[in-house]
Design a protein that fits this description.
Histone, subunit A, alpha/beta, 2 domains, 52% helix, globular, 14 helices, 315 residues, Rossmann fold, 6-stranded parallel β-sheet
Length: 315
Amino acid sequence: MPIDQRPLAIFLMGPTASGKTALACELSDQFPLDLVSVDSALVYRGMNIGTAKPDASTLARYPHALIDIREPSQPYSAADFAADALPVMQRISARGRVPLLVGGTGLYFRALQQGLSDLPDANSALRERLFAEAQQLGWPAMHARLAALDPVAAARIGAHDAQRLQRALEVIELTGRPLSELQRRGHARFPWRVLKLALLPEDRRALHARIAQRFDAMLADGFLDEMKTLRARHDLHADLPAIRAVGYRQAWEHLDGKTDAAEFRDRAIFATRQLAKRQITWLRSDVGARVFDPDTAHPLARAVDAVELFLGRPR
């Protein structure tokens, strides 16, 4: 069997509040690793507290590529991430180091490794028309339209997932073909050989407790003040992907007067728990990942062993 000569890369995945960033930093202390963020919210500038973005001192010591690369007014997609991440990984490998991609956005990992179909570029005029229709009819009605045109895509897109609904309908109008059909095309082999590490809590009670504790810490650190600053910008509105991020959507509604402080907190924590549930479901479907439970034993020693074996050399 021929030896796989591809450069090496590591994926460190896990649900929100599972300790991914801390573990990534610890691993980079021991191995020649450069960190790349895989997070759909950390790409946005000015969204620091509610995203649990690593603080300035952490980023100074452990730089993460693909953090703070977009304004919240600019939608950012899995295709954008793949286009940004590939050249970053190539530069890291060219320096003789190993890219360590860390985050919880499963769609970004999938788009990067498995590729994306040859879909048409965004059409701003069409997007504006679809958005105007959604404002008039509601996103559930747009979802019903998609279900009639592409039931496979509609089955995996939520009725209020504005960004993905808009894109699916846009693709149909631009190509005359269902998005799900275009996405079934084959993909070239990924240019890196990958070690996948997954933090996967077996007991969700501990994870839920950390989610609540972290959100309370965000509130104490000034999350609502951060949200007020964002709301004061004239280029942001509630339907942007950035503002629909977990926590930010609930904070926007709270500042609109739709919820009181207690309900806002409960709804934000519940939404974060639901996000973690979806992330865990996705991770369990990835049979190639080395799984560690962060709550039964510290995963660092086992992760170090896995990385050392994968790199084929001592630390």
